[in-house]
Write a structure and sequence with these properties.
26% strand; binds zinc ion; six-stranded mixed β-sheet; Metallo-beta-lactamase, Chain A; alpha/beta; 12 strands; 239 residues
């Protein structure tokens, strides 16, 4: 059993390792988003090594449909079906996003219907899935971008997905919560600025983790002196 969230990548869209995280719950390996760079890591390390579970049930929880969050899902469904002989469950935050993901998996990528289950968060009824939190990110995807509040091994975890604003998540940040937030060093209309993020969460009794980094050095510089941490990569726990 591994604690809380670990990352297969923590970079923004224009980096080599796009942002995605995972945790385990019982016999389930939960992947939060799945870019192609993370699919390659899944294949390299194997789902058993990653999860510490023998043949885990595999679920992909989706925040929104940008390619750096969903690009690896169809290939992973093919891989799990043909190579691992396992069925993948994909959880969409809303019915609209579920329809978009169905188009991607079924129509564009030709995933076999028996290779995956695609359900909404409402239908999923997972004990670890507490709240779906709508947020503002890309204007073109207005109404289709979400974060989540999760119970990860008893810990209250808030995960923003990609977001331009932190306000939608603040009501979910009780004492001792872990907040994993998108953070940007460069000016961006669609991603929250790291300094603004630190300022707006300052004084809350939480642990802030920075993820979806566009410029890791500048972000580390902006975060120095605060209690914010850079989201941990899975490989850091390997040795
Ligand atoms: Zn992104
Ligand atoms: Zn995005």
């Amino acid at each position: 059993m591994r604690e809380y969230l670990q990352f297969l990548g923590r970079g923004s869209a224009f980096t080599d390792e796009n942002n995605s995280a995972f945790f385990t719950d019982g016999n389930e390996l939960v992947l939060i988003d799945l870019p192609m760079s993370s699919f390659r890591k899944l294949r390299k390390y194997g789902t058993d090594t990653l999860s510490g579970i023998s043949s885990p049930d595999i679920t992909v929880l989706v925040t929104h449909t940008h390619g750096d969050h969903t690009g690896g899902i169809p290939t992973f469904i093919h891989y799990a079906f043909y190579i691992l002989h396992r069925k993948v469950t994909v959880i969409a935050p809303s019915e609209e996003v579920a329809a978009d993901l169905r188009f991607l998996a079924e129509r564009l990528e030709g995933c076999r219907p028996e290779a995956y289950d695609l359900i909404t968060a409402k239908e999923a009824a997972r004990p670890w899935l507490l709240d779906v939190i709508p947020t503002r990110h890309s204007p073109e995807l207005e109404g289709r971008c979400f974060g989540y509040r999760l119970n990860v091994n008893g810990q209250n975890v808030v995960y923003t997905g990609d977001t331009a604003v932190i306000e939608p998540f603040l009501p979910y940040l009780g004492k001792g919560s872990l907040l994993y937030s998108d953070s940007s060093a460069h000016d961006s209309a669609v991603h929250i600025n790291v300094s603004e993020l630190i300022e707006k969460t300052d004084g809350l009794d939480i642990q802030l983790y920075l993820m979806h980094l566009d410029d890791p050095e500048k972000i580390a510089e902006a975060a120095s002196g605060s209690n914010a941490l850079i989201a941990p990569l899975f490989e850091e726990h390997l040795s």
